[in-house]
Design a protein that fits this description.
By secondary structure, the protein is of the alpha/beta class. 43% of the residues lie in helices and 18% in strands. Helix 2 crosses helix 6.
């Protein structure tokens, strides 16, 4: 009789615990997901897309900046970029995102340089733990497409989940409709 009482107590304890755990999981999944838009922009194109995403999703915004920025002159920028690439030189970021763990979804934007993401975005990815984050990449380019940018982002954040990325060609003024449609496709348009 005593054994049956002990077994019954254990069963009730397990079911009670399971019910409490289920309630905790439900309340956790009910909280709104925190969204962050992270971007690097040299010419302003990627910044324009980032700000449109931020506006449509009510996300927070973080600009990747370098301690020693690339020149604003195109030819000088290309020359410094080529030197950095040839010498495997990494430019340090001006600041790190200290509270990255607070975010669930991270839009990550970059211009395309030599068929992939710009070096500051690589530095950002290498310096932040994005494990178990949902990364949604977006890139801007001058006609060459996304290149290997989405694949390269995945290599630098292998423990993150990636959603369908967006690749945009053109200048600052023509992105609004494309961004809005893309956000609707991935169910993140909050307006």
């Amino acid at each position: 009789m005593r054994i049956i009482g002990i077994i019954l107590s254990l069963v009730l304890a397990v079911f009670g615990y399971g019910e409490a755990a289920a309630q905790q999981d439900t309340s956790k999944s009910m909280r709104p997901q925190k969204i962050l838009v992270v971007y690097y922009s040299w010419s302003g194109n990627t910044e324009a897309v980032a700000k449109k995403i931020q506006s449509e999703t009510q996300a927070e915004l973080f600009e990747i900046e370098l301690q020693n920025p690339y020149p604003t002159d195109y030819s000088a920028c290309v020359e410094e970029y080529r030197t950095d690439k040839r010498e495997n030189r990494v430019r340090p970021l001006k600041k790190k995102m200290d509270n990255i763990a607070d975010y669930d979804i991270i839009f990550l934007g970059s211009p395309i340089w030599s068929g992939t993401i710009a070096p500051p975005v690589k530095t950002f990815l290498s310096g932040h733990d994005l494990s178990r984050k949902r990364i949604i990449p977006f890139v801007t380019h001058g006609g060459g497409g996304a290149g290997s940018s989405f694949t390269d982002m995945k290599k630098l954040a292998p423990r993150a989940g990636f959603s369908k990325g967006l690749s945009l060609y053109g200048s600052r003024g023509g992105f609004d409709d494309e961004v809005r449609k893309w956000l609707e496709q991935i169910n993140l348009n909050k307006k």
